[in-house]
Amino acid sequence: MQLSTNTRHESHGLYPQAGSVEDFRRNLADVQARIAAACRRAGRDPAGVRLLPVSKTKPEASLRLAYAAGCRTLGENKVQEALGKWESMQDLADLRWSVIGHLQTNKARLVARFASEFQALDSLRVAEALDRHLQAQGRSLEVLVQVNTSGEASKYGLAPEELRDFIQQLSAFSALRVRGLMTLALFSAEAARVRRCFALLRNLRERLRQEAPAGIALDELSMGMSGDFEIAIEEGATVVRVGQAIFGARPLPDSFYWPAASGSETQESA
Ligand SMILES: *Cc1c(COP(=O)(O)O)cnc(C)c1O
Fold first, then answer.
1. Is the dihedral of CA 121, 127, 129, 135 positive or negative?
2. Is the residue at 7 inside a domain?
3. pLDDT level of residue 187 (50, 70, 90 thresholds)
4. Sites of the modification N6-(pyridoxal phosphate)lysine (predicted)?
C-alpha cells in the first residue's frame, strides 16, 4: 500500500508518564482514535484490530490504573517480570497476560502457569516444553509464531524460509492454539523500510495459510508498536502491541530487550 504514514520513534518527548486513571483513559482513547484513522485510510474495519497494552518495566501501581481504565489483557516481554506481576495482582481475577518476548525452554513451565497468550514462539523445543507443561496443568495457550522480517541478527524469530516446515510440525502440540504470526519491524525512521517488514509478514501468512495443518489458524498478524502501529495496520495488522503511547516512555532503553540492537543508528528510544 502506498501511504506516507511516518514512524514515531522519538519516544520521550511524545510519551509523558500516565499517572492517573484519566491519563490512561485519554491515552487509550488517543491510541484507539489513531487505530481508527489508520483503518479508514486502509479501508478496514477497526473491529478487526485488537489493541494489546504493553506494561513491561512499569510498576504494579501503573498496571492497576490501566486496569481501572479498562485494560483486561496486558503484554509483558520478560517472563519473570510477568510472573511477579501476575502473582501480586491475583485479586484482579479477569486480568489476562500475554507474553510477547523470547522464551528460553527452561522458563516454559512458568509461562504455562499463568499466561493466556504467547506471541514469540520460535522453536520446536519451546513448543514441546510449553505443550508438556500445559498438558500437565490442564491448560491451553493461544500462540503466535514470531518471524524475523527485518533480517537483523538482533531480532528473534524464525527466518521467513523456515516458517513453512515449522508450522507443519506445530499440530503435534495439542495444548497450543496457534493463531497467527508476530513480528517486530526494523527500528527506523524510514517508513518504507518498516512497511516492508510488515508487508512481508502479511505475504507469508497469505502464502502459508492454505496449507496449514488442521487446527492451525494463521488469521492473526501481531505487528506494530507505539512508533509504527499505524503503518502495521495499513499493512494488515490484527493485533498491535502498544506500550509507551499508553503508559508513558520507559526508563530502560530498548537495547535491554533487544540486546544487540544498541549500536543501531536508528535506535532512538534510549
Ligand atoms: C515493548 C514491546 C512492544 C511495545 O513497544 P512500545 O514502544 O512500548 O509501544 C511491542 N512488542 C514487543 C515484543 C515489546 O517487547
1. positive
2. no
3. confident
4. 56
Q: What is the Cα–Cα distance from 30 to 46, expressed in whole angstroms?
A: 14
**The domain containing residue 216 runs over which residues?**
16-184+192-246
Task: Say if residues 122 and 156 touch (Cβ distance below 8 Å).
Answer: yes
Percentage with pLDDT > 90 across the chain: 84
Pocket perturbation via mutation, ligand 1, pick of 100, 222, 258, 268 by most ligand atoms within 8 A of CB? 100
Q: Does residue 259 lie in a domain region?
A: no
Considering its fold, how many domains does the chain have in total?
1
Question: Which of 9, 77, 81, 156 to probe ligand 1 with, by most ligand atoms within 8 A of CB?
Answer: 77
Any domain includes 257 = no
CB 114 within 8 A of CB 81: no
pTM above 0.90, yes or no: yes
